[in-house]
Input
Amino acid sequence: MLLGELRVSHSGNCEHKHYDAQNIEIKWQKQWAESGIDVPSNDASDQRANYYCLEMFPYPSGNLHMGHVRNYCLGDAVARYKRMQGFNVLHPIGWDAFGLPAENAAIKHKRPPAEWTYANIDQMRGQLKRLGLSYDWSREIATCKPEYYRWEQWMFTKLMEKGLAYQKEAEVNWCDPCHTVLANEQVEDGACWRCDTPVVKKNLKQWFIKITDYAEQLLDDLDQLSGWPEKVVGMQRNWIGKSSGAEVSFSVENSDEVLDIFTTRPDTLMGVTYMAVAAAHPLAVKAAENNTELAVFLKECSTISTKEADVATMEKKGMALGVNAIHPITGEAVPVWVANFVLMGYGTGAVMSVPAHDDRDYDFAKKYNLNIKQVITNAAGDADVSEAAYTDAGVLINSGEFDGLKSGKAKKTITHWLDSHDKGEERIQYRLRDWLVSRQRYWGTPIPVIHCDDCGAVAVPEKDLPVVLPENLQPTGGSSPLAECEAFLNVDCPQCGKAAQREADTFDTFMESSWYMNRYISARSETAMVDAEDMQRWAPVDQYIGGVEHAVLHLLYARFYHKLMRDMGLFDGEKVGSEPFKNLLTQGMVLMDGTKMSKSKGNTVDPSAIIERYGCDTARLFTLFAAPPEKDLEWEDSGVEGAHRFLNRVWRLFEKLNADAVGEDGEKSVKDLRRTIHITIEKVTRAFEHGFAFNVAIAAQMELANALQSFDIQGESGKAAFVEGLQALVTMLSPFVPHFSCECGEVLGFEKDAVMMSWPEVDAAALVQDEIALVVQIQGKKRGEIMVSKDVNQDDALALAKADSAVAKWLEGMAIVKVILVKGRLLNIVVRPA
RNA sequence: GCCCGGAUGGUGAAACUGGUAGACACAAGGGACUUAAAAUCCCUCGAUCAUUACGAUCGUGCCGGUUCGACUCCGGCUCCGGGCACCA
Output
C-alpha cells in the first residue's frame, strides 16, 4: 500500500476536534476555478462519453433560497459522480432573467428593471459559487441579453414564415394587476398563477404559436420518456387532452345555417333530443337579437363564467332559443337551447344532447322537461334510464338500421354513414390550445414585428435583428413604458419603407426558458441559435432536475420548442432525437414546520447563514441526506447539526493514522473490514444508478465510517485496510462534500484532487466470505442462526441446524415436511406435528 | 367524476428480482470523561408479556388470497397528497 508516502500532516493538530470549513472551502473553490476542472472538453478526439446534466435555471429574484440549494446540490452530485465515472460532463448554469418581478421591483425602487436584475444576478452568482457547485461558468447565459434573445426573435420570424406564429383577435385571459394577458397554462382555478387575482375575459389581438399542430407528436413522444416520472407524463397527457369522436353537422330549420358539434359518442346519435350551445355561440347571439329575455340570460352567462371560481358546482341553467335543428339521420326537428355549461372555447361551442346516456344532459333534461330517448342498453337488455342516465357502452336499440350494433362498432358505422352523406366526419379533438405568447409588458423580449398600414404585420428582417430592448426605461405601473417609447416604436416598414410602428408587446418569459437547454450547448455562438454539430455531441440533456411545479408549463413548451428547432433544421432530428430531456428528476420542496418555506410565512432559512455557520459541505450533505430527492424535505436544525457531526467524525478518523502499526495482524478483522469497504462501494454505486437515492448512499457511507471508527488497527495489514477504507470513503463522499473530500484526500496523499479521482471499483474477491451466518427458519419464522461454509448444501445445513439448540427445541415432536435452502441467506424448515 | 402517487417506530427513513422488517440518522433516556459546561465516547430505544438469564407473542393503513415464506405479488376497501375537469 502507499503507507510509505503517507504524509499525515493532519497529525500535528489532532487537538482540532472540528475541521475548519470556511478556510478549506474557500481554498478549494479558488483552486478549482484556476484549474478549470468543471469545463468539459469540446474536442472530438476526447474518448470519453459525453453526459449533459442540467438543473432548471433560476430566476434572479435576489437571493438563493433553500429550494435552489437543494436543486443545485442534487445536480452537482450527479455531475460530479458522472465525472468520476469517466464521463465528459457538461454542467451549465444561467439566468432566466426576464419577468414581472423585475418590473414590480423597478416600480417600487424607481430604478429600471435591468439594474435590479443584473445586481441580483451578481449576488446570486456569488452565492452559487460559495456552494462549490461544479458549473462551467464559461457558458453562463442571461436571457435578458440581446445575444441570447436575438435567436428567439429570429426563430419567431421563421415561425411566422411557416405560418406557425400568427396574430388573431381572441377571447383571452386578462390579469388586471399584472396588466397583461395570460396563457391558458398560466390560469389556475380561474385566477392568475402569479398574483392569484381572478382573470377577466377580454377580446384582444394577440400573438399565438401553433402548438396544436404538434399536439399529436407531443402526445406520441411521451412514450419515449421512460426516464420521466410517470406522474409528469400523465399530467402532460391530461393537459393535451386528446379525445376521438366525430364532428356532426345539424342543419338549422328554416335557415341556411349549419350547427356543427363534436361528440365522443356518435353511437348515441339516434338518442339526441335537443342541442345545447354556448352563450357566445353565433346562433344564440342571433336568436337574442329580438328576444330580450334571452339577451339578459346570455349576459348573465358571460359574467358568471368569469367570476365564479368554482365553476364545477355552478347550477346548470339554460333557455330555449326558439330555433330547431334537424337531425342528420332521422330528419326530426330537435330544439336548440343555450346552456351555461357549454364552453365556447372547446370544440365548436355546441353539443348534441343525449340525456339517456349522459349525466349532465340527463339532469338538464329533467330540469327543463325535455325528452329522454334511450338508444343503448346493456348485454342483458334491461338497462334502465328512468332514474339516471346509462352512460356505459352497450348495444344499440331504437336506432333504426343501427339496432343491434355494439357501441364500438356503432361509432364507426354511424360516423361512416355521416361521412358518406356529407353530414359529418371522424374528428380528433384536443384540449390543448395554441400558445399565447404576447404580453403587454416591458421587461421581456421584444416581439420582432413591425406594423405597417399598408403591409400589415411584417417580420423584422434577419439583418436587423436583434430588436434590442431599451434597458433604461422606467415602469410606473399600468401600461408598458415600451408602448410609449417613441424612439423604440417609430421605424420604417422593412417592406415598403413607409413610416411604421414596432410591436410594443414582448414575449411570455416561457419563450426564453423553452430553448435555453440547447443554447448552453452553443452558448457563445454568434452565427447560429445552436450549432448542429455541438447539438449532436451533447443533446439531449441526459439528466434534468427541477421542481414538479413545471410539470406542464415549462416542460411542455420546452418539448415543443425542441421539435420546432428540429423542424427548422437546426439539428439532425435522427441523431439528436425529438425530446430535449432524456431523464427527469422532480425534486420535492423544502419545508419548515410542514409547509413550504416562504417569506410571507416567515419560515425561511437563509442558505448564507447556514454556510457561514457550518460551511457549504454541511448544507449540501444535509439536503441530500434528509430525504429521498423526489420527496419533500423537512428542514431540521438538529439534522444539520447531525450532518456536521458526521463530517467531524470522519475528520477525527485521521487521528487513528498516528498510531504505530504494532501487534499481530488480525486476519479476520481485516477481512471483515475490507468486506465492509467493498459492500459500501457496491451500495453507494447502486444508489447512484438507481434513482439517485443519495440518502441511501450517504447512510451506507456513515456505516463505513462507523466500521472504520470501531476498527482496531493491528499490524501492517490492519493499517493498510484502514487506509483503504478511508480512501474509499473520502473518494465516495466527494460528490456530496467536495471541499471536505479534497482536504481529506490531500492528507491521504491522493495523487489528484479527490473530486478528480476515479470512482472506486468493487473488489469482488473482498466480498467473498468462507463462512456465513445462515438464518434458520421454522415455518418461515426466524428461530436461529448457524455458521456454515458459503457453499453449504441443504443436507449439511439441515444437519447443522438440527444440532443447534435454539432450533432443535422447535423440531421436537415434529416431522419435517419440506426444507428450502436459499443460498447465502436462509434455511427454512417446514414441519408438522409427528 | 377521471388520472397518478403514497401509507413502515416518537420523527426523517431503509429493505436490490418475495427470503433475518426498522439499516443510517434525528429526538428522547441513562452512563463515562470534566470542578462545571461544551465537545466527545459508551449503552437503551416498535408494542405487549415475562425475566435471574435464555425468551415468547403481536407488528409495515384495513379485509381476504397466493406462497415453505409477503412491506414486496393478486383481489376488495379506507384514508392522505398531487394533477385534470360542466371537455361534449
Summary: The CA atoms of residues 536 and 575 of chain A lie 7 Å apart.
